[in-house]
């Protein structure tokens, strides 16, 4: 028979479900979902989810030892300094899809290691915040960052902690660079591919006409024998993860060799010359275009 906590008093342990055992009611505001579980060290962990509650403010109180807090889609505009006193043991915080434009490290719990700020209105990369909090997971996508010269320090932090930032995007820098690179790539790649396609067709026709003795043609079976790669993959950096996770494993499974910018291109040469050589050295060319 259960003696505590108060909402469990008098219940038989044998009749309790997982939901009733993990539900936490002490200091849990109306409309919120509070649950408890045991961490790897045998300590009790309280998880509070305000996302379904009809609140547009920060909670006034939280269950003791709350370590995970979710406040998604609450139209919050700022997090004041009192919040770290409300959640002093907070380690995981989700503020996704709010209206936060600026966030100070002084308003966040000192033990915080996971922070989700996706879909807010932050326009300045939070360099001071990441320096003052030992974050191991950070989400920032969906914010209208204005990437300027004084943000280079944050760029250096990104380079040193690329495993922490799970997704990054600057509306005024990365998007435009990626788009420009794609346009240049298409402009250079299409004429190069057309040239080599026409040249190959010409060689094949001359081979069939028996005039290869002076034209250095090759037979039908050897038209692609001189190429180093089976396929040249051309894609935007935005699609790199999909190519690495989906496309390339399929090529490797089929025992096909491939050429990519990151894997095979050398520095110190003009981009058009590099692409020209890549097309020339590959039997086929795949140009991946996405929105």
From TrEMBL:
Parts of the chain that traverse the membrane: 179-198
Keyword Signal: yes
Protein name: TIR domain-containing protein
An example molecular function term from Gene Ontology annotations: signaling receptor activity
Gene Ontology CC: one annotated term: plasma membrane
One matching Pfam family: TIR
Protein origin, superkingdom: Eukaryota
Membrane topology summary: Single-pass membrane protein
Signal peptide as annotated in the record: none
InterPro entries, per the entry: LRR_dom_sf, TIR_dom, Toll_tir_struct_dom_sf
Subcellular location as annotated: Membrane
GO BP term (any one): signal transduction
Presence of keyword Transmembrane helix: yes
UniProt entry keywords in alphabetical sequence: Membrane, Signal, Transmembrane, Transmembrane helix
Residue span(s) of domain TIR: 227-291
Organism whose genome encodes this protein: Amblyomma americanum (Lone star tick)
């Amino acid at each position: 028979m259960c003696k505590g906590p108060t909402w469990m008093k008098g219940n038989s342990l044998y009749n309790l479900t997982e939901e009733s055992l993990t539900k936490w009611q002490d200091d849990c505001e109306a409309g919120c979902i509070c649950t408890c579980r045991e961490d790897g060290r045998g300590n009790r962990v309280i998880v509070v989810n305000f996302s379904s509650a009809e609140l547009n403010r920060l909670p006034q109180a939280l269950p003791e030892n709350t370590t995970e807090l979710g406040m998604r889609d609450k139209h919050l505009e700022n997090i004041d300094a009192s919040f770290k006193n409300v959640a002093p043991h907070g380690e995981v915080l989700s503020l996704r899809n709010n209206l936060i434009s600026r966030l100070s490290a002084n308003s966040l719990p000192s033990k915080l290691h996971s922070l989700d700020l996706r879909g807010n209105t932050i326009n300045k990369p939070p360099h001071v915040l990441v320096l003052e909090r030992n974050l191991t997971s950070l989400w920032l996508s969906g914010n209208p960052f204005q990437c300027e010269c004084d943000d280079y320090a944050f760029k250096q932090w990104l380079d040193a902690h690329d495993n922490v930032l799970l997704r990054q995007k600057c509306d005024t820098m990365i998007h435009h660079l990626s788009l420009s690179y794609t346009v240049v790539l298409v402009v250079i790649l299409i004429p190069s591919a057309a040239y080599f396609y026409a040249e190959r067709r010409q060689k094949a026709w001359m081979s069939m006409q028996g005039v290869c003795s002076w034209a250095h043609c090759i037979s039908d079976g050897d038209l692609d024998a001189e190429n180093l790669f089976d396929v040249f993959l051309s894609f935007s950096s935005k699609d790199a993860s999909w190519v690495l996770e989906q496309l390339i494993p399929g090529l490797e499974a089929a025992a096909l060799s491939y050429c990519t910018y990151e894997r095979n291109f050398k520095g110190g040469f003009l981009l058009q010359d590099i692409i020209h050589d890549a097309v020339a050295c590959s039997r086929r060319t795949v140009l991946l275009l996405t929105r």
